[in-house]
C-alpha cells in the first residue's frame, strides 16, 4: 500500500514530475545528446513549477477574496471544490481511488494506441479527482472494491482519451495548430463556449484587438485590465465585509490598501502563469514527438487549462467576471426554489471561466468570450447541485464537484447503474 501511495501521490499525482518524466522518455527515444535530454527535462519541470507557482499565488489571492465575499454577503451553502471532495473520498476509499488512477492511466495509454482518440492526459491531479468521483459514484451503487476498481479504471482511461477530443476542434482555433490538447475535465463546457461564441460573435473582434477610444486604450494591456477589473471586485467584497473583517484578514496592512494589494498580487500570478506555460510548451511539445513517433503515432499531450491563457490574456479576466456572475445567478435561483445552494467559489470560477472565455473568444471574439463564460458559470453552478445527492449518500457533505465532465459522467454511471441488477 505504501508503494501504491508513492506511485499515485508522489509521482502520478505530482504533475510536474509526471510531465518531466514524459519529456525525459521522449528525448531519450529521439536519441538526443545528454545535454539536450537534461536541458529539456529540467526546463519542462521548471516551466510547470513556474506555472504552478503562479497558480498557487492566484489561489491564495482568490481565497482571500472568497473569505471577504462570503462574510460580506452572508453566503452559506455547499462549496464546489474538487480538491476538498477528493480529500474526503480518500479518507473513506483510499485504495479504490489510488488503484483507479494508476490502472486508469495504463488504460489511457492503451486506448490512445488502439483507438482514434490519440490523447494522453497529463494533468495528474485531475485524473486523481476523476478517480475520486468514479469511486464515490460506484460505491454509492453498492459495488465491491474489485468491481469499483475495474469499472472505474476503464472509465477513467476512456475519459482521458475522449474528453480532450471533444474540445480539440476549438483548441485548434485557439492555438493555430494541432500539437496540444485540453487536459482539464470541463471540456463539455469549453466546447459549449466555443459553439456559443460562433453563434453570437465574430472571431475577428478578439478581446486582444478591442478598439477602445481615448484613455480606455490602456485596457488593451491585460496587466492593466486585470488589475483594475479585479480591484473593483475586491473592493466590493471588502466594503460589504466591513472594516473589521478586512482588518482581521489584512495582517497589519491598512484595510483600504489590502484589496488593492491582493488585486495586484492576482495580476502578478496571471503573468507568472503565462510565463511558465510558454516555457513548458516550448519543451514538452518537441519532447513528446519521440513518444508519439515510437509508441503512439499522432498522440497529443492533454495539458492543464492555463495552457490557453497566453493566447488571449484579456479574455481570462472577462471570463472570470462573467462566469462568476453566472454562478451568482444560479445561487439565487437555487435559493428561491429551496434547493441546495451552491456557493460560487472564486478559485474554480477563475480557472474554468477564464478558459471558457478563451474558447468563446476563438470563435466569437469578445462577445463569445462573455457569453460562453457566462453559460459556463451557469453549468458549473447547476452541475454540483445535481450530483450532490450522490455525494451525500456515501456520507460526503459540504462540497461537490464543479467540473462538467465529472458531473456528466457521474450522473450517467449512477443512473445506468441504478437500472442494472
Brief sketch in words of this structure:
By secondary structure, this protein is mostly helical. Helices cover 75% and strands 3% of the residues. It has one domain.
Alpha-beta classification: mainly alpha
Output the strand order for the largest sheet.
2-4-3
* SS element count, helices: 13
Helix content: over 70%
Largest pleated sheet? 3 strands, parallel
End-to-end span in angstroms? 32 Å
What portion of residues belong to β-strands? under 5%
Contiguous uncertain segments of 5+ residues = none
- Average pLDDT figure: 88
Please give the radius of gyration in angstroms.
21 Å
Order of helices and strands: HHHEHEHHEHHHHEHHEH
Instruction: Using the alpha-carbon principal axes, give the shape.
Output: globular
Overall tally of structural domains:
1
The count of strands amounts to: 5
Entry keywords:
membrane, two-stranded parallel sheet, transmembrane helix, 421 residues, single chain, PTS_sugar-sp_permease, 3-stranded parallel beta sheet, Ascorbate-specific PTS system EIIC component
Question: Can you characterise this structure?
Answer:
The strands form two sheets. The chain has a three-stranded parallel β-sheet with strand order 2-4-3, with helices on both faces. A two-stranded parallel ribbon has the order 1-5. With 421 residues, the protein is mainly alpha-helical. The protein has one domain (1-419). Helix 4 (82-114) crosses helix 6 (145-175). The protein has 13 helices and five strands. Helices cover 75% and strands 3% of the residues. The model has no long low-confidence stretch (mean pLDDT 88).
